[in-house]
## 1
Amino acid sequence: MKLYPIESGNFKLDGGAMFGVVPKSLWQRTNPADSNNMIDIAARCLLIENGNKLILVDTGMGNKQSDKFFGYYYLWGNNNIDNSLKQFGFHRDDITDVFMTHLHFDHCGGSVQWNKNKTGYEPAFKNAHFWSNKDHWKWATQPNNREKASFLKENILPMEESGQLKFTSLPDTDILKNSELGFDLFFANGHTDKQMIPMINYKGKTICFMADLLPTAGHIPLPFVMGYDTRPLLTLDEKEKFLNLAANNNYYLFLEHDAHNEIITVKHTDKGVRLNNVYTCDEIFN
């Protein structure tokens, strides 16, 4: 098995929204804001090469939305999926499976693109299966009013219409062991219903793709919960459980949204679980 970080693009989000009820005087120590109160956000995806499988975890925002839409998110930098794949010798047509932690636009928007004549949409990875789970798919396609703006039908429905959509099994407990794609999945319901956190056994290490359970290293303290979460008290419990597992077992936490910290470990302290070490992907994957 080989792992590769795939940078799909960077953007900015309101720091207050990213940290909920936590005062700016606290969160700006780790995530400094600009003059508009916006903080740097990455959309760092993960490519898993395992035998004849080439699995891409999440796909970022994509590029099919309007300039007005992207204007809300202050895109910055030159990263995109195609250039990042090319850096490691791959093309999007090589991807066999696209695994989506959840279907918010910044995680799955790149899974669908305009067709050649811009008359409709098509899968952006023509040879891949697209993976979600039945409960989250229903949640996303019949959205509540709070999340409706994050579940964009043009990002979601074309995957089903193409016939390339597949669903993982659902667990009896929080963790689905050895899922259909060969890695464990931790299911979390605080941010959105049935978000999936891949836990990948790699060279004797457990690499956890944290998605929105832990967006940045600055979110480690338990009360530091995003205002975007639909069930913040549940996020508190889920994050506490996962961070204790991570500290007990020295998990390596791959941070999808942290523009400045790629992989971290955590440790137990008198104040609870806190940051231990910071690594680059090169240090852990090579």
## 2
Amino acid sequence: MSSFWTLWAAVGTVVFFALMVAVIVKYWRNNHQADKDKVLDTFDGIEEKDAPPPKILFVSYFAAFVISVGYLILYPGISGWSGLLNYDQADDKLSTPTTSLDEQFSQLQDQSLMLWRTTLR
């Protein structure tokens, strides 16, 4: 990958994490300003109140942020960083099969689909 795309991916990742933090800070501040007794609008007798966001929103968003940062520290995800575990996809067993597709098909002994196909004719 060229250095332009490597830099582009790194900047995009850092900007995304900065936006995640900004959203949390914004809603955390608005959470303390919300008045659950204030009615914003009424439609067919149903009142929409200015309720704060639930606490589970902040907890789950924070957990997602921590897991994401932890993943980026352990595994490659930002430009040339190989991660603390030095993971390389080329080391993955599924990335480099030891047999070809023809060799794998030659090992199949089940011809039931071929028999079914010939009975349809």
## 3
Amino acid sequence: MSVAEKLSTTENSFGIDNVKSLQKVNEDVLFIHDLREVSNLSTIRMEYNTFVYCRGGRILVEIGGDTQIKVKPGQLLLVPAGKLVQPMMISADIDAHALLLTEKILKSALGNQLDIWNKAMYMKETYIVKETGWLEGVAEYSQKIFPNDKEPKLYNEMVFAFLRMLLLLLCEELMRSNTMFHSSDSSTIHDKVLFNQFLLHLSQQEQKRQKVSFYADKLNITPKYLSTITKRVSGKNPMRWITESVMDDCYRLLTSTDLSVKEISNRLGFPNSSFFGQYFRNEAGMTPMEYRTGHKRWS
């Protein structure tokens, strides 16, 4: 089964099953030359980090169930893997293309700079890169490095080099425009490595609502130490990260599937639907059905 076929059969389909301009580099890299061909933008999720460059028109999306983002021409929309994206408005004159990368290729290309990406995406929630001097040029070049017909012999090496350059430029831009990177940071490289591993384990769990000790065991450290480094690196304790990740799954299943509240409760590992309803209400300020009803019009 191809990547496009695999995606089209999942509840998180990017709607790319019939996209003629889809370029599959390998299992880790997908490129869509023309976003107008995408038939269903109901969700952008699963294992892909998504980069959407808007050259013309307007896009309005909701990320994580509660944050509205406007994307204007010349801007780059960044969506980390695991984040629910709900389209609210895509103008008829949209001119945009999208790059989709797995966590594996993102980590490989960024190397030691992965912490910059994680800070910007998961802590600061920076989803837009505004017009810069290099963005248009890189976007133009991306149309050439992801050809639809003839591939050069060193194609994979060229693609990886391009991705590393793009991601490093993004990290540099995120650091320049974000005051959080200029503040004092007492965390060590070892702390950041463990924190990134914690986020990775969290993203890979189907039932994320686990005790802190569950994730600490996977890292071979104590729950107390995990709490210490997570707080030191991100300013939030691991339980807060777990809760936010659980809620991302709640939002996704409520808006992108027809599963009942009871079925969603069972899938996410809650003891019963009543407990799930109270948990959701405490975090979202409304019941699961109220949230689903309010977001149906964007499906």
## 4
Amino acid sequence: MASRQPPDTLAPVREAAVLDVGSNSVRLVAYRVDGRALTPFLNEKVMAGLGRNLRTSGKLSPEGVETAITAMRRFRTLLDALGVPDVEGVATAAVRDAADGAAFVARAQRETGLKLRIISGAEEARLSAVGVLTGAPEARGVVGDLGGSSLELVEVGRARSGVGAGETHALGPLSLMSAGPFDADRVAAAADAVLGRSGVLAGAQGGDFYAVGGAWRALGRIDIALRAHPIGVLHHHEMTRADALRVVEFVRKQSKKSLERFEEAAAKRAETLPYAAVVLERVLRWGNFERVVLSSYGLREGVLAERLPETVLTTHPLVAAAEAFGAPRLRARAFGQTLETWIAPVRAAGPIAFSKERDALVWAAACRMADLGAALHPDQRSEIMFDLVLRAPLAALNHAERAFLAAAVHHRYTKSPPDDAPAFVKLLDESQRRAAALCGASLRLGADISGRSQALLSEFTLRVTGDALTLGTRKDMAHLLTDQAQKRLDPVAALLGLTARAG
């Protein structure tokens, strides 16, 4: 007889927060830390403008200081009310460069109880790169983190640690604005004078540029709107070089009022966005990058990732995030892990959607979400699943893979494809749609024959032999092979072009 089901309990997840005091904004993000998965549950920002006029005065903006201290008082109250005990505070370019930066840090701690660690430009670059790799461990290229006052550049993917030496440059919008009203040629010349000496960009010469920072995320939102891209998720939104330059040209031609009317994210940064656009254009020129990849992971995630134990780093961040989102109970996690191995013969026999390595990861993530719709009404599951997974807080996958995963979990509950979903239609070709249907049908087979029990699923075998897909079990478990089992096996076999055999 099958072994008992594991206890359906999990050790409590940890909660931690990062306070990021930048040149333009003061932001608090609180995370649910579940193994390697970092899921924000509170994200609040105040545009303080600490670095405004820093280049001319040498000090923090007095109004910005008061705004920042008030924001930090609120953040302290929120953290106490939520019971988040673990808070890491960092201060970047404006505070480290200002003559009164240390005095601000001391006052902040005295009046709010929140400690700030002033980090160097090289450390900021390194932590941003660590954060990008946390959300995209396969990243290869250059990370650029554009803050209010500075731009950090660092190579990723080649050094043994994954992170090369970093650079910091005074090319943030607030630094560039100090020279006078926006003039695209002047800003480009100022950027060229600095970037032309960048060792990181000189060594790049092609490949991917990973863009971090609120201003560049706003450019990504504009690209999504201009291209009517079917997914609004910014993490791993990709722009070709031509796409990015088109956005830059669009922003350069808009007035401040036009940008404010165009898109919410652009409206909040209408004054600084043209500077960010020109800097991106010059970075693309000097690095000769072929593609821009937006990363929602950066400095804050890098701060947390460095504190994760080695034991959790063996799990791929996509699988960890899918497990945290789709399998909050230990029983569901055990089932998802077993299901991944159990359906591997089907994946190996089916069409390749992306690559063998990427397919294995996306199918593994789908297995962790095989029980995602359990609490939903059966009549609603199929129409909800696609959109739910499409916008889930998942890391380490691009938008086509995100659409594939959403389609696979959708097919876990229905044979009918989500034809009315633009992401399904626009981002997946016919072979990828078929592979997603195969993945979903396999999830449904494993879930239904076992009652989503890891122990019972282990009693079944699933094999591809010759022209047949065979589902089997021991003689004393044969009563589990009902007509329903055959009904679930048939579509899996059909998608493989095989004969279904149960028994």
